[in-house]
Protein 1
Amino acid sequence: MSVNIREVATTPFNDQKPGTSGLRKKTRQFQQPGYLENFVQAIFNTLPGKAGAKLVVGGDGRYFNREAIQTIIRMAVANGLGEIIVGQHGFLSTPAASCVIRKYQTLGGIVLSASHNPGGPDEDFGLKFNAANGGPAPEQLTNAIYVASKEIESYRISESEDIDLDTLGDVHIGNARVRVIDPVADYAELMRSIFDFGKIGAMLKSGDFGFCFDAMWAITGIYAKAIFEEELGAPRGTVINGEPLTDFGGHHPDPNLVHAKELVAKLFSDDGPDFGAASDGDGDRNMILGRQFYVTPSDSVAIIAANARLIPGYRDGLRGVARSMPTSAALDAVASKLGIPCFETPTGWKFFGNLLDAGRITLCGEESFGTGSDHVREKDGIWAVLCWLNMLAERQQPVEDIVHEHWLTYGRNFYTRHDFEGISSEDGAAIMEHLRTLVASPKQVSDWLENEGAETGLASCDDFAYTDPVDESISENQGIRLQFSDGSRIIYRLSGTGTVGATLRVYIEKPVKEAGRQQADTQETLAELIALSRKFARIEEISGRTEPSVIT
Ligand code: G16
């Protein structure tokens, strides 16, 4: 089919700076004429080697996913891409997109999602570019895309018909081939190569093990049903809220104790299942629950690292591990015992990419419900659940016992995150500026803490800067850190994934080695540090907020 290409004149939008994970905005903002087109053209203008190359396109199925995909296909054709690989119905979870980009050796992929944010005409939409390694574009590339978005004068688009996204197979438009693929098959094959499906299947089919997976009306429904129910033989109904809906049923597809209500109610009931898990809008986050027991994401990655040899894909051990700076140091304790390096990176999965590519780490994780390994270059919800299922099938113990044993061996890092959402951008900036000024003078911070009667002295304080050990690129202003002499920490940063105003995140941690104190309540154990964190940052004085809106 020959095709006409149009060059459409446009003017820049000056707000297309990618955040922690691509460009996230209100859906209506993305739907403005030229908004999506400008950003996609900025990506194409930044990418070398696109002539004839392969590109993956897919998303989490939220409102505007299909329309955006049709536009991106037309623009990819007009920009000279040779093959566009699209998930059927426009579906690809973020980790599956990463898997497909790697497997078919493409130039990269465009993934449409605003992750755990709600979807719909009045909610959020997002777009990110993943590079040829399958991972989120590194900062140098996102910065270059932003520059290109501010200089854009026109975009290229073909005048072709919509593609039938529901039918598997190939369609040719001009010189390009569009392949509509099964969004699950390649990913499921990868999972089969890592985990002991025989053992997990036997446990799930035994009738002695209760499992519930909450797909939160989002993309992992199709993966979870295919893998947990159809392939591994878990009873039908194991996957709840399993049909991907464009508005996620009006909910936040955010796997935490607040939003995964139905799952939490099941697991915390008297005769609840043994194991529960949830994933988010685009399938990269996960929450792990035992019967009446919540596993923090920071503990989850540490426990997976400590038990990795039980999983066939990691039987040879781990080369190294990494966590984002605000994630608790539970992982560090495991790494130290295993005698492997543990890297501390800024928040954002993109910072793990170089370490994974260079073979310096095998596993990594974040406090924000993200866990992953070198099998793809994204965090991976279904993979994390399979890690737990594989560990449970091997250890034959309740989740709670596994976690308690872990704490006895490595100590427990009490951990909480307090989010002050929806404060104004100005107040958010003022709080960070105030903190930056304070930590520039550690003596002043130390004196202030002493004056407040703080239990433990300050070991150091700074504004975290990261030098990538692989390419030596430097990322500054990645969060304010107060580190205490007993290993406790208070960390402050502004979220980079919101779409309105600012969200101040305050992360608080305290390591406890003594077994007798490990069963205490998290908020009570951290109460002193929590009070200090608010006063030190002058949160109430600057923003008027006395309490966080979300505590995880
Ligand atoms: C993204 C990033 C994560 C990050 C999280 C929270 O996750 O990929 O690395 O930890 O955002 O970022 P922030 O604290 O800046 O809001 P997702 O699942 O939203 O793509």
Protein 2
Amino acid sequence: MIDLHCHSLHSDGTDTPEGLALLGEEARLTALCLTDHDTLDGVPAFLAMQSRTKARLLVGTELSCQFLGQSLHVLGLLVDPADARFQARLVELRGRREDRNRRMLVRLAELGCPLALEDVQAQADSPLLSRVHFAKALAAKGFVRRPPEAFERLIGDDCPGFVPREELSPSEAARWIREAGGVPVVAHPGRFAGGRFHWDEAMADLQRQGLEGLEGYYGEYRAAEQRYFVALARRLGMVVTGGSDYHGAHKMGLRLGRGRGGLQVPDELLDRLETQQKLGAHP
Ligand code: AMP
Ligand code: MN
Ligand code: MN
Ligand code: MN
């Protein structure tokens, strides 16, 4: 079993990269890919654990894009952490995030919930601040009773305190990831749109924009969703990946490698991913 999607405290998870590597060993995974949002800062500590775990430790990241007027997440799996241009591009993305965060503080103050940047920083163990840290800060200041209420009333995607980031296009994200030697993959498509959404056309569009894979196995998918997305990938000739999207204490009940309990990502998906990585490699 493998897990190609998880977060450390370098983005919005709560485990250290070292802790994740040990958890991967405990879960008897044969491979584990770290995919923090917008950053590879956890990678050196993660890879340094390779001698202490039998799980192959792999490098990735998760970027947010704009697609059909909504936020679509794209995984950059197997990117080269030594690629200076990619690192510079991630710095640019984190700058956009910081700008968004400052504007969210202004919006929250207007809504009667004044927070200082330091209040949000106090909830994070690394410089990258995401809405999970805003939610905790809002609870710590007594503006909501518990963090989930912050997402319901204030900072969820459709709430008045939410400010979107200036986001990438899927084609740009795909190009950046490819140029860093990685494989661009549509993360958890079932979370972007479920129910009656007909994915065939939209996914074919993303494929034309350079997305080469989709996350067919996911920590929070029901069995029917997994079947649907694995079949969709097969129809379109895209690679299938899978992971838990483990966030530690920031997503309770979700386990590394196992998701909500039933997740089992087959090892052979990694072989196919590595074949795809070579196929699409820039000369
Ligand atoms: P950001 O990247 O700062 O916009 O924050 C996005 C993160 O906030 C996601 O990766 C989730 O971890 C979390 N998040 C977003 N919406 C919700 C929600 N409705 N409930 C709980 N967590 C959420
Ligand atoms: Mn997250
Ligand atoms: Mn995501
Ligand atoms: Mn994720």
